[in-house]
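For consistency, the fold was encoded as tokens, which produced the following:
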Amino acid sequence: MMAPALGLPDLTKPFELFVHERQHLALGVLAQRLGSWKRPVGYFSKQLDTVSKGWPGCLRAVAATVLLIQEAQKLTMGQKIEVYVPHMVITVLEQKGGHWLSPSRMLKYQVILLEQDDVELKTTATVNPAMFLSTENPTEKLEHDCLLTTEQVYSSRPDLKDEPLKDPDLELFTDGSSFVQEGRRMAGYAVVTTDKERLLKRLEDTLC
């Protein structure tokens, strides 16, 4: 006789949800204490939606956390959940979310992560059991600074400002567009002055 892979949820005990995001998949393990052990009562593997797949990695972790909390609550029935993630979810959401999330999505995430009495978030750098759920090529660092990583990878040049230079020699205006036509990504950009075109260019497919 062997013990089952999953135990039955005990609604008299709190739950622990371990969350991990890899390759646009939200991976999770829902567990409860059984003596000194953590016994799994649920495994989760959910695709992120198309919008959140394009976000920086730490914001994808925020989306994965929200998605799996909603899935876990189908089993926990209002019992307390301690959510363990290897990212500073609240800090990333509050400081970077406004640059990537729509107002409605931002509000939804804040409600689920901050305003539910049964949810408590904990950032941990220890080995997360959700990391062992199978995907292809599970290669990534366990520890990093979420805000610093997002700034370095996705921010524009630090010398660019949101205010124009005083007394410039030349004023340039730029714009770009991107769309999919017959399954092919099309993108381009333009640089103009107030009276003429300076540069019009189409990007190669490999750069789109």
In short: The longest strand covers residues 37-47.
